[in-house]
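Repro:
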Amino acid sequence: MALVTNRERVRSVYLRHRPFRPPPESHDPTFLFPAAFAALALAFSATAQQNAPFMCSAHDPEHLAPLHQNDPHKLADIVQYEADLEAFTQQYAELSEEERGGNAYVIPVVFHIIHNNGVENIGDAQIHDAIRVLNDDFNRLNADWDNVRPEFLGIVADVGITFRLAQLDPNGECTSGITRTASPLTNDGTQTMKDLIQWPRNKYLNVWTCAYADGAAGYTLTPGSVNGGWGAAADGIVLLHDYTGSIGTSSVGRSRTLTHEVGHWINLRHVWGPTNEPGLASNCNETDNVSDTPPTEGWTSCNLNGNTCTAPLDNVENYMEYSYCAKMFTEGQKTRMLAALNSSTAQRNQLGTPTNLTATGTTGTDVLCAAEFISNVQQICAGGSVSYSDISYHGVTERSWSFPGGTPSSSTDVDPVITYSTPGLYAVTLTAGNGNMDVTTQANDYILVLPDPGLPTPFTEGFENTTALPNADWAVADFGGNGTFQLVATTGYQSSKSIRLNNHVSALDEIDELVSTSFDMSNAQDVTITYRYAFARHNADNNDLLRLYVSSDCGNTWSLRQQLYGTSTLSTSADQASAFTPTQDAQWAETSVSNISSSYFVSDFRFKFRFQSDEGNNLFLDNININGTPVGFEELITSSNSIAVVPNPVNDASDLVLELRESGRLAVDVLDPQGRVVRAMPAMDASAGAKRISLPVRDLAPGMYVVVLHQNGRGQVTRFTKE
């Protein structure tokens, strides 16, 4: 076949979150580029797949641009590295099997799951499945390999490469070979995301999975393009989570994407050559530099009778095609990949050495080093069940669980299901063994069991008697791992305490939650939630979002009922660059949520606040109330004459008569039966003693109302009826 043009830099454009960018100019192999641009065009090779059909773009320098920054010396080096590797490959191909030293190779692998606590945070099982598919394909263990067209059956290669998840990290510590990093950059997928975490490329194949792979289903770079020390940071494979393995968020049809990418990572090109587009007649003049892959225009469909160039038949079922019926590598492709693994280019020849296999824990002998488990939930209502899974590593053959407070209280199963009947906080202990040694982990206060039926209502919460979060009434979720909702004793609405989310330092799209305990609403006629909030932006572009969700099944599922936006309804104070703290009651707002249907009138009702940062300022919450009087104030007076509405029932006019026991700032609110403020009287300074205050009740609809007196962080409550 013709000499390779060294012009391939291909990546798929599986469309996710931004518009499709069409391929650039046509790829005439005789076209002459200016020197610098030619160096770029010759340098790169990145690729990926997508359904119906695969699409790629060529000569796109963005993956390495942040590293080479168009330095002409670095660009020239890339061209030379590619040429040197090609020369080595040709020499390797001429060696005998004995001279090559065998063909059994092991590659240590680490998967970096970059996620923002969404579906892209795939489970370990999906990663293990991806490794299984990869090993099947590279060792001719895939069940469909012998179904290829008879014309190619004799050259289906057993490449002889085994991929193993690392069992030791770069510091020699125990690892599952899977890391998890919470970051909004999962939606970026560029070098910036890769910079979050990378293990040494001379010891591991780095694979990053994410929600958005820079417009691709996945991409990688050929060894020559990243050979320089400055290029090491870009070395590895980026995959969309739903193109990883064949289970979980992915599918069987997408499961060969990693196989395709690894092919490029060890210096394979598309079977139609170094152009970016299959299906072009001009591809018949191109080459992949592999002698036993027939010339082809390339395919995006599975036409097993395809014959596009001069060969009798195209190798449509090749892993380096886009046909979606890939089943094989050829013997020629095998030789090319093994040449790359024996070359010092990009340090590929260091990966499979005995020293490195020992250092990464990939010799094939498992070392038991960690007991770990996961569960489907950590909060349930009494009578509910929790599903646990043992994910201890490595080589676990036996396990022993302890579940105080649960039924059963112990188990030896891999995936036990435990029922909890009594509210409380419970620990979980797991001991994992391999017949020779054991490792143990204990998670204290791991499972929170809430009452069912839940707390009675009305429920009021002003946090005046709260000492810390989380507690029996409130759970918090810190998805960003850098601090979440917390109690503050320096500010509140007509009080000194409230809940603050330190959004002043939060990252873009970071999520935090404040989640309630369970409430018994089984006899409710309606459900209404009111609360006060204070929020400021840094600038007018901040559109932070506060949502309120409700649940009718103790938090197993949630439904959205309210959204407050930073650019409109959420902001209660002027924008400010410094950290925001409300200093006056006027900087607080109150809102009511009553669009809660009868399907939520259950014994295990819950609600939660979910805040999504747009890098605005701090958020404060106070006076949370569900179907009752304003929160934070206990009903001190019921039948005494210290506070009363006269007359009661009222008609057009009435007074609030009270005896103040102390002096202080005084405010009075009138609430309807759902706890909504319908009259808020201006605050005033009041001295101790008898007082008579006119109540504005003329325009109120008939019904029962509550009067709440606020003074010095305490409250007094009485009721009246409007006729």
